[in-house]
């Protein structure tokens, strides 16, 4: 198909910002403009002489603006192929050709983010605009569609540098952009109606923003991030985030969301697994206690804290090589010091937000589940032994029980005084995880006497509580649910250990 000269345009946008950038070029190109409502007023105010759509259709905007452009004299001019048969019909029914359509849809996603008012939300479902986009995109052989503000720059280039002429490649490119806009918009509406999964179990997710990463998990794998990281973080300094950085950062945020309301809490993660975690009265003390959990693994790790970082803490952190440091805020002098290392990534987190659903691609599809956001407190614990945990042990059991959710199964966590002492994770047997945790604590120089143990799943045999008892553990928290629970309970009673059940398993595969 030949190059097409833009002689006429229909402009109907909700948000008028950015339009003034193309108004002068529209004037200079001598393009006849049709418009509606507020857009008509805006264009006229800025010196154009648009024609109201109702002057074509002989119908005013009706039903509180729900119907403005939905008319054959509008859609005929957009959908008509520039071929003899269609052109004859346009002439017969006095339908003007429309060569360019510029649309910016009602802000549906912004509205649902700002209000729960169903009436306001429903009114922001765009009907005419989405129909204009689809019609113009379908007829890309002859019509150029500009489906959102993101494409205004493309239009400016066409008007300023291409003498208002478009090639088939130009129009096809914008048609692709148009269907990206419409499919994303429809997905957002569908997900609003299906928030409680009351419509069906179809999986629809659409993300407009994307960033090409240096590579994936390994250099031979391509990686792309789809999402708006700026909604979660302000990136203060450091190199571009990699695939592995993002995976670790997500794990860190999900972990710290559990402890965000605690006293100052610091965590160190390596390959998504927490290897250091502690809550203390000051951020500096929390840092030292977290680092003591595994200073070797902390090298090159991801660090996260639930409170502002001061200079004294920054000076200590600065001694360690790390990949990423995440905090809600930084004192100015701390920030000056930490940004002196140009490659290390500093992120200021806006809030510890957790998604309600998690996704994983596998086989030839996707599995979806509710995010494991359930957090048991000491009031949820059910004592199963003659001896009950002390108040401080209850605090430690709750601290450790939150942590097991964020380590690969099978998982055992050993803690005392709200500090991670040792962990075993990713093991094929719970006994191996228990042995690993005890050995790890020993290597780090921790005495386990009086410490507590948490398990992400039940004990099918008493072997783990035996190992715990022999190492000095005083109290245990586990989900329970094994047909042989009594074997572990009996062992605890016979050896003066306290054990509580939660009734909730926290596997992480």
Structure description:
This protein is of the alpha/beta class and 509 residues long. It starts with a strand and ends in an 8-residue tail after the last strand. Helix 17 packs parallel to helix 18 (463-471). The protein is elongated. The chain folds into three domains: 4-193, Methylglyoxal synthase-like domain (Rossmann fold, 3-Layer(aba) Sandwich), CATH 3.40.50; 230-349, Cytidine Deaminase, domain 2 (3-Layer(aba) Sandwich); 379-501, Cytidine Deaminase, domain 2.
State the CATH topology of the largest domain.
Rossmann fold
**Oligomeric form of this entry?**
single chain
CATH superfamily of the largest domain: Methylglyoxal synthase-like domain
Q: Per DSSP, what share of the residues sits in E-state strands of 2 or more residues?
A: 15-25%
User: Which geometry do the CA atoms define?
Assistant: elongated
Name the average pLDDT. 91
Q: What is the tally of helical segments? A: 19
Number of domains: 3
The count of strands amounts to: 23
The unreliable regions are none
Question: Features of this protein?
Answer:
single chain, 509 residues, alpha/beta, Rossmann fold, Cytidine Deaminase, domain 2, six-stranded mixed beta sheet, 19 helices, 19% strand
